[in-house]
Amino acid sequence: MIRTQRWFILLLLSTALLGCGGGGGDDSNTGGSASSVNAGVDQTVDETNSFTLNALGDPVGGTFAWRQLSGITVTGIPATTASVTLTAPAVKADSILVFQVTYTTPAGQNLTDEVQVRVMAKNQAPVAVLQITQPAILPVAQGLTAIVSAASSYDLDADGRIATYLWTQAAGPAVALSGVNTATVSFVAPLVASQTDVELMLTITDDEGATGEGSIKVPVRASTQQIVADAGPDQQVREFAEVQLDGSGTRTVTGSFSCRWSQLKGQALVLINPTSCQASFIAPDISGTSQLELQLTVTDSNNQTATDTMLVTVSNAVLGDLPDTGVLNCYDISGVIPCGDETYPRQDADGGRDSVVQYLRKIGKGEKAFDFTKLDQFGDELADTANDFSCIRDNVTGLIWELKEPVIAVPPASTLRAANNRYSFVNSNAGNGDEAGVPAPALSSCPSAENCGLEVYVEEVNETAYCGGANWRLPTLEELMSIADFGRVGENHLLDPAFFRFEPDSAVQNNMFYWTTQSSAEGGGGVSAWVFDIRNGNDNTLPKQQNQLGYVRLVRSP
Known about the structure:
Layout: H1 2-19, E1 26-28, E2 34-38, E3 43-46, E4 50-54, E5 56-58, E6 63-70, E7 83-87, E8 95-104, E9 110-120, E10 131-134, E11 145-149, E12 162-171, E13 184-188, E14 196-206, E15 211-220, E16 227-228, E17 235-238, E18 242-246, E19 251-252, E20 257-265, E21 278-282, E22 289-300, E23 305-315, E24 330-331, E25 336-337, E26 372-375, E27 391-394, E28 400-402, H2 454-463, H3 477-481, E29 513-520, E30 528-533, E31 539-543, E32 555-556
């Protein structure tokens, strides 16, 4: 019985040994003996720490070969020893490394097994290192720039870097920091009654989100001045532009102050809010370039004062060489709207001389942006209030314009320059489109005994040396339009009645066509000439025929 029990126990032990192959693979030979390899248990290790791979092979006496199957490459692999010590790589996040060992038995069999190593990311906070790099001499004097650098800050992780910087002021008189998101911050030292520290705080963040902090105190020297006025930088503007004045850069020990602006030099200005630190004015109408000098006077709460000056250089605005159209209103589909509306942009009244009419400095007088000077029979200037004048000068274009004489009789009993005289187009000079035109008969629609063509009329006016000149001529279409006020549409005519006092009756030919010197190609060739209707602003063409009549207004250069 005892012998039978011993045999049964030996059988169980044999069975157990045959079923135990370790943690790895195994191979059995035909003789029935078992072979196996075990790569060891899975591991967890912190980044940059060392770990050891241990393999067991059965039967003993074979060779080992380690290789890495996946994960960040580790130095030391491949290896040919049963045990190999390695260093975990630096990682930004937890990572898995997989290794495989191959065991070659003494009989030449190859057995394999795998093991995993989990590498845990361990981020260390960065270290803030702060240093005052400017000025070299401390404390910092008021008005000088103090610079603090964090360029020597570092990340304790070998593979880490500092991703962001954030500077703030922790204590001391308020200053304006420049470069708050960079490695270097700066500020202008304020005025202080006694030596005071400006404390700065820096927070740095590395590329894995860890933060570090540091602070530094920048000593500021007691100020010899208690208040420093700052009128701002000099400016360059166009005439009629709104110029902003800003004295808020003034510095005081008390921190509070009041401002007052005044003018020292240049064309007289109207200052808006001159007792405010933010004032303004409209750049004046100037000739050429002009300089304006402004002074800022500041007073602190201790009644101490300081001054500063600034220069404003004003140059001519680009308003064009014409007086503008006289249209002062802007419109939408319903009616008048404020000018400058972005929904209905670039309207006539938005630009040009009409848009700045309230700021124009005129030589003479005239409605809106028009500027006329009255001249006597010799072409000399008269006072704006003169009632007896012979012609006028447009001070914008410089042209001198003929004024018509009052209607006292119908042609040919009318005077030479009577408003109701009419002429056909005649121009034998070059540029007439090779069509000189045909004069109307003498003593028909004008008082001339020669003919009623334009060319004769120009000659007769020049013979009189009218208004001191003998260079009178027909105007161009653009020149005629330059004296028209299109804001007067609907009235008797488009000219300022205070200057152009005598005009023809539109009922005579149902228009107020005035001839220009320009031929028209309409209809082919130069058989027509341009006319301008001073009644409504329309342009048109009339054939150069003796029965096609229009009115005449001559012009000349000084």
